[in-house]
## 1
Amino acid sequence: MAKTPLRVAVTGAAGQIGYSLLFRIANGDMLGKDQPVILQLLEIADEKAQKALKGVMMEIDDCAFPLLAGMTAHADPMTAFKDADFALLVGARPRGPGMERKDLLEANAQIFTVQGKALDAVASRNVKVLVVGNPANTNAYIAMKSAPSLPAKNFTAMLRLDHNRALSQIAAKTGKPVASIEKLCVWGNHSPTMYADYRFAQIDGASVKDSIGDDAWNRDTFLPTVGKRGGAIIEARGLSSAASAANAAIDHMHDWFLGTNGKWTTMGIPSDGSYGIPEGTMFGFPVTTENGEYTIVQDLPIDEFSQERINLTLKELTEERDGVAHLLA
Ligand code: NAD
Ligand code: LMR
C-alpha cells in the first residue's frame, strides 16, 4: 500500500538553493523513493518573487514526479507551514564578496522570529526543522526560541555542507573514496571558526590521522580550506554555493529521517550540555541517527588543540546569540 504523503515546507523556494533542492525532494532523494511528498513553498509576497516561484512550480509539474502528491505556493508562513512534517528554512539574504555570514544577522534574524512563531502555531508537533539561511546556527536558535510549544530538539542547523566539504578534502588527500571515510565530524558554528575534526576518522578501519601523519596539513591547509570554502565559492562564482548546499540539506534530512545505520554524521543541534557546550546552544556535533532521532556521540577525548578550537567557535556563537537577544526578549 502506498505511504501517506508527508508535507515538506520550503522557504526561499524561488532562490538559488530552492532551484536545486525542490526537484530532488520531489524525486524522493530526501525521504525515500517510496515516500510521496506534498511541497508547500514559501516566498516573499513581492510580485516578482511569486512569479518566479510559479515558474519553478511549472517546471516541477513538467517533471511529472511520481512521488509528488501536491504542491502549493504561499506568501504567508502561517499557511506555508500548516501541518508541515518537515520545514527547510532556506529563504534569507545570502552574503556577497567580503562579507562574513554574521554580517547577515540583522538582516535575517527577523525572518526567523516570524517563521519560528508560525511553525509553533501551525506545523505538525513532530515537525523536523532545518535552517539553511545564514547565519544558520543563530537563525535556528532564534526559530527554536520563537517556538516554545515545539520540542527544542526539532530545530537544527546545517553543518552538513561543512561535513561533506571535509570528507571531500580528506578523500583527495588520502586518495581513498569518500564512501570509505567514517567517524568524521565538524564542531560548532557554520562559519570559518568551525572545527572540522578527523582525529577519530577511519578508512577501512585505519586511522586517517595516522595515515596523514602531518599535523601541519591539518592546521595550515585542511582547516582553513574547509572553514573558508563558502567564501572561496562566492569569490569564484560571484554567488554563494547553491547545488552543494541543496545537496547537504537533502543529506541532513535524509539521515535524520531514515537513519545513519550507526555511522557518524554532523548536525547543528541544540546542545544538551555535552562536551561542556551550554544547553540550548545550536552547535555542530557528531551524531548518529535512528528512528527519526539523533544522538550525540559521547565520550570523545578532547585534546588541548581541539578544546581551543571548540572554545573559539563557541565564543562566536555566544556573541551572535547575545547580538539577537533583543529580538527574543
Ligand atoms: P537567494 O537569494 O538565491 O534565494 C533566497 C530566496 O529567499 C529569495 O528568492 C528570496 O526572495 C527568499 N526569501 C527572502 N526572505 C524570505 C522570507 N522571509 N520568506 C520566504 N522567502 C524569503 O539565496 P540562496 O543562494 O538560495 O541562499 C539562501 C540562504 O542560504 C542564504 O542565507 C545563504 O547564505 C544560505 N546558505 C547557507 C548554507 C549553509 O551551509 N548553511 C549554504 C549555502 C547558502
Ligand atoms: C557556504 O558555506 O557556502 C554558505 O554558507 C554560503 C556562504 O555565505 O558561505
## 2
Amino acid sequence: MKPVKVYTLVFVFRENQVLLGMKQRGFGQDHYMGFGGKLELNETLYQCAVRELNEECGLIANSLTKLGVINFDYQGEEHIMEVHIYVTSDFDGVPVRSEEMDPKWFSVDNIPYDQMLRDSPYWFPKVLKNEKLNGFFEFDENKKIINHSFNDISGV
Ligand code: 6U4
Ligand code: NA
Ligand code: NA
C-alpha cells in the first residue's frame, strides 16, 4: 500500500449557490475545485480547512461541517490523497482572487462539471445534497477513473 498524504477540501454555500475556484497552479490547475490543501504539522484537519479557505479566497469560516473523506489513488503518484471534505454557509468576507484560486459563485443547478476533475460528477452531487460520503477512486496514468467505490455510511 502507498503512504497517504492528508488534504482538506471546502465548499462554501450561499442561498442556492456554491463557490468554486479556478485553480491557477499545481494539482488540478485549470479546473474548478473546492478550496483546500495539505495538512501542515501542528494543525488539526478543521484548522487546515479554515486556513486554506482563507489563504485561497480570503473568506473567514465561522464554522464548518464535515461531510466525509475520499481517497484518490493516481497511478504514478507516490502518495494516496486522503481528502477531508467540509461545507459551510457560515462565513465572513467576500471571495477574492489569490495566486492559487480565482473564485466564482455557481448556481447549484448549473455546476461546471466539464471544467472540474473527472471524479467530481460521482461525488459532488452528494455534497450538494449535504450527504455524508466516504469514497475511493483509482486512476490510470492518463487520470482516467479505473475503479471507484462508496461505503454506505448512512445512519453513521
Ligand atoms: P500548495 O501549492 O503547496 O500551496 P496546497 O494548497 O497545500 O498546495 P493542493 O492545492 O495541491 O495543496 O491540494 C490539492 C487539493 O485538491 C486539495 O484541496 C484536495 C483536492 N483534491 C485532490 N484530489 C482531488 C480530486 N481527485 N478531485 C477533486 N479535488 C481533489 O475535486
Ligand atoms: Na490548494
Ligand atoms: Na493552498
